[in-house]
Amino acid sequence: MSLDTPRTEARRERLTAHEALQRLEHERASRLMQLRAIAEAAPAGGEQMASTHKDTVRRVLTEVEAAVARVQDGTYGLCRACSEPIPVERLEILPHTPFCVPCQRDAT
After folding, report:
1. Can you give the CATH number for the domain in which 101 is found?
2. What pLDDT band is residue 48 in, cutting at 50, 70 and 90?
3. 7, 12, 52, 104: which has the fewest Cβ within 10 Å?
4. Mean pLDDT, the chain, as a whole number?
């Protein structure tokens, strides 16, 4: 496809609440599966690494729950820092993110 070929598919600005909840539920299920796998495979002597990994997964689960709350209150997909819409492509990749890329960069 050349650069001057018009796109026939319109770019969506936001995910629907149903789509967002589906993605977040998938994210939640994946993270819960990770926690089970860590618990089952924790090697002897690797407790510190397993604990760190569990903490990271739990942090993401907390972010997923916060994103579900944002879907319910109608603020999902809006950056918490600048209030601008988060691009749908970013939400498809990281459905629990509360920030657009520029604000995420500023936060770190």
Report:
1. 1.20.120.910
2. confident
3. 7
4. 86
Tokens encoding 68: 């579900």
Q: List the Cα angle 100/21/28 in 5-degree steps.
A: 85
Query: Percentage of residues in the chain with pLDDT exceeding 70?
Result: 83
Look-up of token digits 């809006």: 78
Per-residue H/E/C for 32-64: HHHHHHHHHHCCCCCHHHHHHHHHHHHHHHHHH
Overall domain count for the chain: 1
Residues 6+ apart with CB under 8 A from 80: 98, 99, 103
